[in-house]
Amino acid sequence: MKATMSLLLTMLLIFSCNEKPKDQISETDIDVSKTINSNPLEGAWELVGYYNYLDNKVIDSFRTSEGYRQVKMYTPSKVMWSKYVPTDSSEWFGYGTYKVNGTELVEVLEYGSEMMSKIIEEKKEFKHELIINGNSFSQIEIDEDGNRIYAENYKRIE
């Protein structure tokens, strides 16, 4: 009887020591998808192609040309992009801030390359419809009537 009682007490002690405190949080208690990156645009992206629209429907799509590269990088509040066109000696880059408001991406450029600075003098704020799908996104140019004109399509590279 004493042996049985000792065995039961030992087992009870072992199991009670392994129980985690109620206020301790384990990794499985946290929704990791929300803690890793609450900003889905944060990271580095490369342009892979375009869509042209007519009556808000894609009528044409094409990939970037051989050797052409356009990369965008987003931090929590800043954006910077650069473009390399092998057949063009002009430099193309821009830097500024951005915000995502639902399905709208608003970039406000502070400065850019010589060519881009001329555009920024006329227009600093660029608004696009934004569609994010995991590791890809599209920024869609909208006309004054709210119709889609064209989209730049990006894939995540980091």
Task: Explain how this protein is built.
This protein has 158 residues and is an alpha+beta fold. The protein has a single domain, classed as Lipocalin (Beta Barrel). The chain is built from 3 helices and 9 strands. It has helices at residues 2-18, 32-36, 114-122; strands spanning 43-54, 57-63, 69-74, 78-84, 92-101, 104-112, 125-133, 136-142, 148-156. The chain has an 8-stranded antiparallel barrel with strand order 1-3-4-5-6-7-8-9. The longest helix has 17 residues, at 2-18. The model is unreliable at 3-36 (pLDDT under 50).
Major beta sheet, strand line-up: 1-3-4-5-6-7-8-9
* Helix/strand/pairing category: alpha+beta
Largest sheet: 8 strands, antiparallel, barrel
- The number of distinct helices, counting runs of at least 4 residues, comes to 3
Mean pLDDT: 83
Please provide the count of β strands.
Answer: 9
The first-to-last residue Cα distance is 65 Å
What percent of residues are in strands?
A: over 45%
The sequence of SSEs as H and E is HHEEEEEEHEEE
Poorly predicted residue ranges: 3-36
What is the name of the CATH architecture?
A: Beta Barrel
CATH class: Mainly Beta
Number of domains: 1
Rg value? 26 Å
Helix content: 10-25%
The CATH topology comes to Lipocalin
Shape: globular
